[in-house]
Amino acid sequence: MLTSAPETTNSSPSDTLGAACSGSVLRLLVRNHPGVMSHVCGLFARRGFNVEGILCLPIGDGMCSVILLVVNEDERLEQVIRQLRKLQDVIEIHRKPEARNVFAALTKLSTW
Amino acid sequence: MKITGAALITGLLERQGIGTIAGIPGGANLPLYDALHASRIRHVLARHEQGAGFIAQGIARASGRPAVCFGTSGPGATNLLTAIADAKLDSVPLVTITGQVPRAMIGTDAFQEIDTYGLTIPITKHNYLVRSASELLEVIPDAFRVAASGRPGPVVVDVPKDVQSEMIEVDTLPAPGTADPPPRGRSEDMAHAATLINNARRPLLLVGAGIIAAEASESLRRLAETASIPIAATLLGLGAIPDGHPLFVGMVGMHAARYTNLLLEECDVLVALGVRFDDRATGKAAEFCPRAKILHVDIDASELGKIKQPFLGIEADVAEWLGALLPRVTPYPRVEWLTRLRQLRRMHPLATPGADDPLQPYGIIRHTAALVGDEAIVTSDVGQHQMWVAQAYPFARPRQWLTSGGLGTMGFGLPAAIGAALAAPERTVVCFTGDGSLLMNVQELATAAEERVHVKVILLNNGHLGLVRQQQQLFYGGRYSASRFHAEPDFAAIARGFGVAAYDLGGTGDPLVQLACALRAPGPCLVNVPIAAAENVYPMVPPGAANRDMIDGGIHVDIRA
C-alpha cells in the first residue's frame, strides 16, 4: 500500500521530511473497528491514489478513530475526497494543511 | 424471546419483506438453513453460488428492491464474488449473507476459511463481519439501508457459524432498513440548469441506469417533449423511454447507430442524467461530445467530474431534480434541430440486415419481440448477441431489459432470467444468450426446471466466442486465437437432459412456427438458433477510438463527411 512512500535510498532525513511534508493532509473521523483501515487503504490502492504518510489513533471512548493522510495536492484530490465520503465508516473529512507539522515531527523516526 | 442468531437473521429478512432467497447451503451456514426451514421465506436452490448471486440480481433488477443470496464460507463466498462485483458496477441492490468459520477458528486457515470481508471490500458498497448475535440487530437493517440508499449497490454480511448458533434474548425487533433521503440539488444550480437548457440550440439528453433506479421515466418524457430534446440511452438506460418514441435516438457508443453518435458530435448541451461516462459509451472520452457543455446530474457526487468535467455538475436524485426542473423549462418546438435529427436518421440509420429471417441475429430478435410483446422481460448474456439485442429489441418500459453492463459477465443471462421470473411470475422472461455465455452458468437449467419458471432461452449459436472472433478479424489481422469452439455441444440435448424442453430452429420444421410454440408453452425452454459464424456487430468503434470513428462491414466511413 505504501509503496509510493518517499524513496529513502541515499536521502538524508531532511529530504524524507520534505517529501512527507509536501502535499495536503486529510483528517478522517472514522468508526473504530478492525476493518476500517482496510477500507481506507484499499480505496487508495484500487483508485491509484498515492498516500505519502498515514497516522491512525483512537479518540475519546475508542468508538471512533482519527486517520491523518498525507496526500498529493493535485487535481485528483477532490475525486479522492468524494470517494472517501462514500465509505460507510468515514464520518467526517476535513483538509488540515497545518497537520503537516505532525508528520514533520514523526520523520525523526526514520533515524531511530 | 430467546432465539438463535440465525433465526434472528431470517426474522429480520422477513421484516424487510424478503420473499425469496437464492443460495446454496454448506458447513458454515447450516444454522442459517436450519432457521430457514422454519421461515416462510421461499428458498431457491441454485447449482452454483454464482448462479445464486445472479438469481438474486435478477430479482433486484426486475423489482428495483434489494434481493438476498446465501452462500457458505470459503468456496461458497469466492463463487459469489463475480455476481457481487457485477452488482457493484451496475448499481444493483444486493444483500449477500455468507457463512464463516466459527470466531475462534478465524485466522487459523480452517477448513473452508477465506477472508470474505477482505475479499469483498473492493466490490461492495459496504461489508460486515458480524462478531456477536446482538450485532445482527443493527447490521441486518443497516445492510438494507446501505444497499438501497443513494446509488444502490451490493452489501456483504459475513456471519461466523457460532454467531448463527448463539442464543440471544430479543424483546423487540428493530425497524426494517430503508433508504436514506436522497441528496437535493442546490436551488441556484436549478436556475442555472434551466437557463442552460432553455438557451440550448442543439441539446441532447443522455440517460443511464440512474433514470431507471430513480423511476424518473415519466419526468424524463415530459422534459423531452416539453423542450423537444432528443434522448439517447446508455446500454443500461434502454427502456427509460419507449423505443418507438419519436425523440428516442437509440443507444450511444461502441455499437450505436451511426446517426446517434453523429448527434452527440453535434449537440451543444448534453444533459447527462444518471450516467457514469463508461468508456464503451463515450469512446475516447476527451473527444466525446466535443461541442457540448455538459450538465451532469447524478446521485453519486464522485461521478461528477470523474471522467468528463461537467459545465454544471449536480448531486441529486434525478427524479426529484427533474420534477423541480420541469416548471422552469420553456416549451419549445426546436424545429431546426429535430429536422437535423430526422435527416441524420434517414442518412445513417441502424442497418438491420436479415430482420425478417429468424435464422439471422436481427431476425430472431425482432420475431421474438413481436411474439412475446411489451410485457415480457428480456435478459442477455455478454457478447455479440447482447449488442444485437441492445440495438434492435424494441424496449418499451423501464426494468424490461436486464443485462450485465459494467462488468460484462458472461453467464449472467440465465440465472438473472430465473430471478426475474421469480420476481414477476406473471411475465414471460426471454434470455438471449450465446453458446459461449450459456456454458458459463448452464447448470442453472436445473434450477429453471425445478422452479418451473417461465424462462425462454434463445441461444444464438455461432460456435464461437463471437465478439472475440470479431475483434480478432478486425484488429488482429484475422489471427483467430482460441475463439472457435471445435467441439460443438448439442444444446437441445443438454437442455432436455436438465428437464428443460428444447427446440432447434436449424432442423427441418418451420422456424417461426417452432419459435411461436416455444414461447407460448409454459415453463422453461431452450431454443437453439444456428447463426453464421461470420456475422459481426456493426457499426463498431474500435476500442480507444473516438465515437465518430465507426467502422462498418470492414469499410471505414468517416461520418464527418
Summarize the entry for a quick read.
Chain A is an alpha+beta fold and 112 residues long. Chain A is built from four helices and four strands.
The major β-sheet of chain B equals: 6 strands, parallel
Classify the fold: give the CATH topology of the largest domain in chain B.
Rossmann fold
Any idea what the shape of chain A is? globular
In CATH, the topology of chain A is named Alpha-Beta Plaits
The CATH architecture category of the largest domain in chain B equals 3-Layer(aba) Sandwich
Mean pLDDT of chain B: 96
CATH superfamily of chain A: ACT domain
Distance between the termini of chain A: 23 Å
Number of strands of chain B: 22
**Measured on Cα atoms, how large is the radius of gyration of chain B?**
24 Å
What structural class is derived from the secondary structure elements of chain A?
alpha+beta
Detail the topology: elements first, then pairings.
The complex is a heterodimer of chains A (112) and B (561).
Chain A: H1 13-21, E1 24-31, H2 36-47, E2 51-59, E3 64-71, H3 77-85, E4 90-95, H4 100-106
Chain B: E1 2-4, H1 5-15, E2 20-23, H2 30-37, E3 42-45, H3 49-63, E4 67-71, H4 75-89, E5 94-100, H5 116-120, E6 126-129, H6 136-148, E7 154-160, H7 161-165, E8 167-169, H8 187-199, E9 203-207, H9 209-213, H10 217-227, E10 231-233, E11 248-251, H11 258-266, E12 269-273, H12 279-282, E13 293-298, E14 312-315, H13 318-325, H14 335-347, H15 361-372, E15 377-380, H16 384-392, E16 401-402, H17 413-423, E17 429-434, H18 435-438, H19 444-451, E18 455-461, H20 466-475, H21 491-497, E19 501-504, H22 511-520, E20 525-530, E21 551-552, E22 555-556
Parallel strand pairs in B: 2-3, 2-4, 4-5, 5-7, 6-7, 9-10, 9-12, 10-11, 12-13, 13-14, 15-16, 15-17, 17-18, 18-20, 19-20
Antiparallel strand pairs in B: 1-8, 21-22
